[in-house]
Amino acid sequence: MKGLARKWATFVALSLFISMSHASALSDLPWQFGPAKVQVGPQATIEVPDGYAFLDPEGTKRLNVLMENPPDETDTYTLAPTDMRWTAFFDYDDIGYVKDDEKLDPDDILKSVKEGTEESNKERRSRGWDTLTLVGWKNPPQYDTQFKSLAWSFLARNDKSQTEVVNYNARILGRSGVMNVVLVSDPESLNASVADFKGTLDGFAFTPGQAYTDFHAGDRVAEYGLAALITGGVAAVAAKKGFFAVIATFFAAAWKFILIGLAAVGGAIKRMFGRKS
Predict the structure, then answer these.
(1) Cα distance between residue 247 and residue 254, in whole Å
(2) pLDDT tens for residues 25-58?
(3) Per-residue model confidence as pLDDT tens digits over 218-269
(4) Which burial class, exposed, middle or buried, applies to 23 when counting CB atoms under 10 A from its CB (0-12, 13-18, 19+)?
(5) Do residues 169 and 151 touch, judged by C-beta distance below 8 A?
(6) E strands along the chain, which residues?
(7) Residues sharing a CB contact under 8 Å with residue 218, sequence separation 6 or more, in sequence order
């Protein structure tokens, strides 16, 4: 009970530095604290380590409102360390088996993503939220042939505050679809956050029979390859739905913001609790 109380205290105290309203709302979310094994939808599981917490789709919806993120169209799950120095969002896309033999063109992909971000700003303006300018790659896309995952990160700027935010993205390929991951961190601590996050992925696994290597002839194959995983599948569906209609929806949900001041005070909160203990 002492450990659990300390974890709740960390969340509440951190939120108090941001705002009293956020404090109450954040502490009321249905966090599941590690160590625990949790379901990430019916397709996968993850071992939540001690010092980390997890939210189901209902809790993630409430967190998105607090963080001024557009609502997700699919069930989304949240993983974060209890000091909230980074936040990771998981959702599964049942698109079929994605072939990983495509050569990636970072310049071409970046052009499409910039167009998509501009379109998504229309959605943000309609909600009264800050808009974004995509600065460029923080890390261009890289494919891990062993883990069967694609990873990249963009650097963006909040147009109102002129502060920078980084989104680290990963796509973990499975037999029947892809697990999408968006990790939010401030730019200065991105490398440390990504390293920490990757450590938690040691506990990630698709359900038996659903790993990428379980593919059999006759399984459904995705309509597009690796590049479209970054641009939201635009290449495959643009002709059916209209290019900008698709990417506006995708990027409105893809960019995740950090709560105001969250990254700046996270370390201070952690040190404060360390001294008290």
Answers:
(1) 10
(2) 777 789 999 999 999 999 999 999 999 999 999 9
(3) 999 998 889 888 876 544 444 334 444 444 445 544 555 443 334 333 333 3
(4) middle
(5) yes
(6) 32-33, 36-40, 44-48, 52-55, 76-81, 87-93, 132-144, 149-158, 164-173, 178-185, 204-206
(7) none
